[in-house]
Amino acid sequence: MLDQRFDPQGAEQRIYQRWEEEGCFRPSGDTSAEAYSIVIPPPNVTGVLHMGHALNNTLQDILVRFERMRGKNVRWQPGTDHAGIATQMVVERQLAQDGGNESRASLGREKFVDRVWDWKEQSGGQIINQLKRLGASCDWENERFTMGDRHDPDDQMQEAVRKVFVDLYNEGLIYRDKRLVNWDPHFQTAISDLEVESRDVKGHMWHFKYPLAGGETYTYVEKDEDGNVTLEEERDYISIATTRPETMLGDGAVAVHPDDERYAPIVGKLCEIPVGPKDHRRLIPIITDEYPDPEFGSGAVKITGAHDENDYGVAQRNNIPMYRLMDDQARMRTDGASYEESAKAAQAIAGGKVATAAEVDALNLVPEAYRGLDRYEARQQVIADIDADGLMIEVEDKLITQPFGDRSGVVIEPMLTDQWFVNAAELARPAIEAVRTGKTKFVPENWTKTYYNWMDNIQPWCVSRQLWWGHRIPVWYGPTLIVEEKGGERHLRYDIDVPRTFCANSFSEAEQQARQYYDSFGLQPEDVFEAESASEGKQAVSLAPRAVVLWQDEDVLDTWFSSALWPFSTQGWPEETEALKQYYPTSVLITAHDIIFFWVARMMMMGIHFMGEIPFHDVYIHALVLDEKGQKMSKSKGNAMDPLELVDEYGADALRFTFARLAAQGRNIRLARQSVEGFRNFTTKLWNATRFAEMNSCEFGHDLKPGDLKLPLNRWIAAELAKAERAVTASLEAYKFNEAADALYQFIWNVLCDWYIELIKPVMNGEDEAAKAETRKACGWVIDQTLKLLHPFTPFVTEALWEQTEDAERKRPGFLMLQDWPRYGNAWADAEAEAEMAWVLDTVSEIRSTRSVLNVPAGAQISASLIDASDKVKGWAAANEVPIRQLARLGSFAIADVKPARSVTIASGEDSIALEVEEFITPADEIARLDKEIAKLEKDIMGTEKKLSNENFVAKAPPEIVEENRERIREWTATLAKLSSAREQLKDIS
Description:
Elements: H1 8-21, E1 35-39, H2 51-69, E2 73-77, E3 79-80, H3 84-97, H4 104-107, H5 109-123, H6 126-134, E4 144-145, H7 156-170, E5 174-184, E6 189-191, E7 196-211, E8 218-223, E9 229-235, E10 237-242, E11 253-256, E12 270-272, E13 283-288, E14 300-303, H8 309-318, H9 339-350, H10 357-362, H11 375-388, E15 392-405, E16 413-422, H12 424-436, E17 441-443, H13 447-456, E18 461-462, E19 464-465, E20 475-486, E21 489-503, H14 507-519, E22 527-531, H15 534-541, E23 547-552, E24 556-557, H16 559-563, H17 566-569, H18 578-583, E25 586-592, H19 596-611, E26 616-622, E27 625-627, H20 643-650, H21 652-662, E28 669-671, H22 673-695, H23 712-733, H24 737-764, H25 769-790, H26 795-804, H27 831-853, E29 862-867, H28 871-879, H29 881-888, E30 890-896, E31 904-908, E32 911-916, H30 923-948, H31 951-956, H32 959-989
Parallel strand pairs: 1-2, 3-4, 11-13, 17-26, 22-23, 25-26, 27-28, 29-30
Antiparallel strand pairs: 5-6, 5-16, 7-10, 7-15, 8-9, 11-14, 12-13, 16-18, 19-24, 20-21, 20-23, 29-32, 31-32
């Protein structure tokens, strides 16, 4: 016997444990069956389940359970991402909180990495356990971690990452370069754009004079739109505006737009950077470039290519030297030669002297007065010094958009650094073509444009990070051999400033490469050693003349590098495994829009390049989960909801069905606690319907064929069930989760529970044993089939009902989640039964509606008459007289040729039904009440129509708000028609 209610807290863990113990999540292993695979977007190993995770994994699980029941060989590949910077930060913070003297620096690299692995093994599985609470039916036995296995240096996941790097390097698609990156001064590493958070902060714009070289002057002229001169004066300077005065020290040029006539007389001239020792202030050229906007500020822009993204582009286009001013902590540089010596060298470069990038980078153009200062301390000193020289024009308050590290919280510094880059443009071409030709499709389709926009403008991908936790870059360095001729003799010497690169899968391979290199010079080293660090390696070179010392690159790879291999590395690549053959390409990827470029595009590039095939056929981009007011959830706003708290209170099924019901393509989800509570009530309603069936001895666990049912009522519910199956199947195939959930909700709540269960009560209480026997079979079968259809959405309650309704004589054939998905086709279509029951439902609904409109007391047993109907309808009325009376609360339901006097008439299809209500109401009072309701509705309709006629509102309001207003008008208009009709009929009998 079913419990009175379903207890999620008690049942969910028990059911999930049984699924796992019985291996229900494993692939079927049936190689003859169609394969269906999804790779989970691997959550950070530091992660805690949030609403985005909950939505994403609910949608994946719905598809996986659906396809598994359809007989496919399903693998849902789970795993976690090592999350380089996030995990390193967690462990460093833990070390600090422990109160000891240990830190990352004091431990050293090897011991610190061991400590991270310890943390991962102790605490890294939290989010996996949380996903299990949600019901995720992943192939947990095949769980993967992007860092592979701690205890196996030859681990396949690690091998895959090394092989990809080495292969790309050998193909010339990975290279070392000095480019501008997002530099986090707190973590002292480059970070990706995704890890940068833009914020608007209060700041200033300083306007300075850059004096022209040699005191030269020019006529500065400003004109209005009509060409009239509004300002004309002689100037010996060019005006520059900047929000970052400390970067002026690294200026390489001043740029103006080629069409800006104000500066035409001085283009090609030199101007002086107005800061630093006066005897050694640098002169820089004034150039033209399309970047400056003549309408913004003075129209002249200082170009500091090493510390500004836009300036970097200008400097590259115009061959302007880029001078780095700061160290890894964003303090002003202290290394290198004196300012005087560096400034002279820079001046020579500005005059045309050719210099290498390394020579330019070595120049420290920070005057001694500013060296070692924090960038903001230097800013204040620079401003004060320029002001003291009388070269400040003005300061204006300004709202500035600044980049912050999303984890460190510090201002990100654009920094010119040596990093490893992937030639993403080359890899992107086939990835773009794959989408253009339809091999991979985005759903909704509009995200295709976003993908193209990013991919068509793709920049080199910085893949190196200055961290210790991550995949170490598989590159070793050794001294470069320089051949020098002295006195007719050939001499060899080591150069460690520009070391030789050996890219290899292992140190032993790097050693072989090194031996080949040094042997080619006739130098045959006795041994090749590996140093623990670059500094140790460089020191050891001079100490081992008959040996060669190599040192490995100290950087690690960007987390997204290993994640880009996820669809094939998780299946055993680079080995040609059976799993790889079966489950690559994957069927669909479900993810959020914010990582289309960072992850989706890179998986496309890597998958096509290394596998020769797309990584997934479809990419479904789900919406954001917002609060009920449409605002982004955040702890600071106080509107964040914890999915696990909702699971604790309402059960996982309620949250899952809420997500599915609200997951309309292209529309953000507005999540309210009341919605989850409402769908908890939905599962309760199904539970109660099943309890009713059980208490009435309905037969579960058997099959029915269309010819087994005779009663129109039972034939009708079977036809409705078949319609629901077709709708759910078609919707899930098209990733229309909301439409699938809505079809189930309408069938279960409205058709099965509100109508069928109520309609069979008279049968169950009647004397017709044959009808009761058929109905018991039909009801039990329909509920069984309903559990199958609902299972992908609400797996726990459906599995609980499946196992608890098992008949002692009819054992269930295993878990519900492993049953076959219903496939009815048109076998259960029954136009005759559907027409009859549609008339019954319409009749009851109209009577109920009219009772409500006319304010007839709920307990009043009114009389109703079917007027002048066809023989077919009379037959329907006679056959269904009892359920119609009971459901519509009628004292009698007769068939008549003439409408009774002083009755109101309603339509049921093409027929009329007269209701005798006069004795239960006061017509005059009801007319007065209806007049008020009609007036209010008319006012509401008019106000909303006025709002919708406002083009500004329609253009700016969210589409869902506009649609809500239109739906209100439709509903109000229908209600208004009913009220007006009722009022007219009341006038006739008053």
